[in-house]
Every structure is written in C-alpha cells, then in structure tokens.
Amino acid sequence: MARTIGGISFAIMNGPLDQAGNSVETIERIGRDYSRFRKIGLRAQPRTIRTVDFGPATDLHTAEAAYKAAVGTTVTIVDAYGVSYSHCKVLQCFITDKPPCLSAGVPKVRLVAVWRVQLTAPTEVTGAS
Q1: What pLDDT, in 10s, does the model give residues 17-75?
Q2: Is 14 helix (H, G, I), strand (E, B) or coil?
Q3: Which residues are CB-neighbours of 105 under 8 A, at least 6 positions away?
C-alpha cells in the first residue's frame, strides 16, 4: 500500500490521523462556583506520525530537504491501509535517526522521521473501508 505525506513515499508509516470532532471551551470565572462549557466548533487535534524509509546515502540530503520543505504546507496523507486524508497541515518534521544499514547486501541509510500533522478542514477520506 502507498504510504505518503504530500507525495513523499515511505517504507513504514505509523500513527493515527484524527477526524475533526466537536471541541468545547471551559469557561471559569474567579469568585464563581462551578465551570461552564461552550461548543467552539469542529477541531482535529495535532497527531504524530513516525515514518521510516531506506535509500542510498547519496539521496539522504535530498530526502531531508524534501521533508523540511513539506513543513507549513497543506498536503494529502495516504496511510498504510490506503486511506487518503486531504487538507492536512504539516506542522513539524524532525529527523530522529539515520543509521547505515544493509538491504539485500547493498549499503543504505535508514531515515527515521517524526511528523506533527493536523487536519485543517473537513476532509475527504477515501480508500479502504
């Protein structure tokens, strides 16, 4: 299955995406007993996604630049099940590890990244059900 963030493909992608749901705000006043709440609309919480990809060491800088360029953009994310989420804002991307490894006897680099993303609008969720 395709695992992509804004067209960047990954070998492994872990982490749930959250659909927008009702959010409430707590209203508290000094000197008043109890709390009140009010609905403030549909919101999705920021989520963390962990990705892993493998490639030649020569492609490492190109991949890192692509990850950093995605920060601040609105993208479509396709998860490991083939479910597509549109209108996702990439809030942050941290490269957490890039150790050398062997794949089929060929030296490669494993690029591990942590992404913070958030749905920004009602989204079309398509794909596997």
Answers
A1: 877 777 888 888 888 888 888 888 878 889 999 999 988 877 888 888 999 999 999 99
A2: strand
A3: none
Give the rounded distance of the alpha carbon of 2 from its chain centre. Answer: 14
How far apart are alpha carbons 51 and 10 in whole angstroms?
6
Average pLDDT over residues 76-95: 90
DSSP 25-54: EEE--TT--S-EEEEEEEE---EEEEEEEE
For 96-125, write each residue's pLDDT tens digit: 988 887 777 778 888 999 999 998 876 666
Closest CA to 53 of 105, 104, 95, 90: 95
Q: Are 117 and 72 spatial neighbours (Cβ–Cβ below 8 Å)?
A: no
| Residue 128 bridge partners (DSSP) | none
pLDDT at 92: 96
CB 54 within 8 A of CB 12: no
The domain total for the chain is 1
Range of the domain at 95: 4-126
